[in-house]
Amino acid sequence: MLNQLAAGSALVVMLTLTLAAAAQAGDWLPHPANAQWQYRWSDTTYNPGGTVENVDVQQQQGVGYTLAWAQAGYQPPAAGSALVCPSDVDLGTMSFQDTPQGPVNTTWDSCPPSSSYPSGQLCPAGTSACPDSLAGFLYNVIWGLRNPVLSEPLVHGLSWTGSGGASGDVAGTSTYVGQQVVKVPAFPNGVNAAVVRTDLALAGTEDDAYGSGIRTTWWVYGIGPVRVVFDHVDGGVTTGSLLSTSLTPQPDPTDANYFPMQKGLTGTYRWTNNRHIRKPEVERVTVGAVAGSTARFDVKSLSGPIRAVGSYDFTSDLGGVRNTAGASSAATLLKLPRLTHGRHFFTVIDLMAFGFNPLLPAYPSAGDAWRSGNARDQQVYGVVGSTRIIGVRRVQVPAGTFTALEVRSVLTQRGSPYGSGVRTMWFAPGRGLVKLVFAHRDRSMSTVLLIR
Questions:
Q1: Which CATH number fits domain 266-450: 2.20.28, 1.10.10, 2.40.360, 2.40.170?
Q2: N or C: which end of the chain has fewer CB within 10 A?
């Protein structure tokens, strides 16, 4: 039997936030009890006649769940039962975990494919047993990228890399292409799907050309994958489509990237305060490094009364955009108001990240709201309050006119009127922060504008 166990377990971080419409892990790969899917897959070289597979949710345990499948005419394996393999019958199980980064594949177990199928050729030379296979719809979905299978939040500009296969022999790079209407037998009139293209490379085996190629997967929110096409380097093509399901498509969450974290992205900002910083402070913000879902934002003064530098880490996952670390320093003759907890407003990022996490939810929409309460944030900032997404507005700044997400926070830092007040921020897709207005309770107002 084919079998693979994950080398490590996924860590699920529970966040103390309340959102009116919080994104839930698993909506791109849902797994409610009794859910069922039916797929048909074929391969131009090894399975031209095609196979119909019935898939169901075998079991759920905490954040983990197992899907089971069997070809038409057979029942998917039941939970707790040993896998019995009739000759040349397509059946098996595949397990996943919901994580803040998206669904992660942890294990699989299936009957060996037909002897005509190149199962053994997908493994390194000299391997006595081959736990790899591309003989099945779900196998083609997870091949090359298992942690995560689908990175979230799924937004414009997203790409991620990883490895797959039993021994990590397959390298993959996935890119979110965008949304597209796709027609499959389950939805003959078309259904909106998120399209992900993956470049796959298998090295060191007897048949690298079959395990390598370009895979395109169509994901439907509330359904899961509905179509997959794997164009192999050797010229063969594997295709799979959803024939039917017990689930109903759900409205797609926004794929606008309001907080882009592409390395090298820059923005120049002008910051004034009508009482404390009357001569404009101009600062450049650069995304200096990216590692997985975390990026470092570097800030440097270009001109003005504050000679500041700063470096901040932000992460983006299903918990939203969060500031995880940061430090700034400055040399200035200005007598800036005091903040408690040893904080300072030296840079525009200090103003933006101040308060509590998340900065934005994973899939923000009008009406989303959350409050302070995270113990770490209380120790760092000592701020209580609430944040609400007002909606999408057109905003004009020196850098141009943007259709931006308006986010409003009411903040209170005990003992500091300057650290308290109402902060409104505007984030534009592909640019991030374009405007910030902080009406402090000391009756001053900070204004930050993107100028280029």
A1: 2.40.360
A2: C
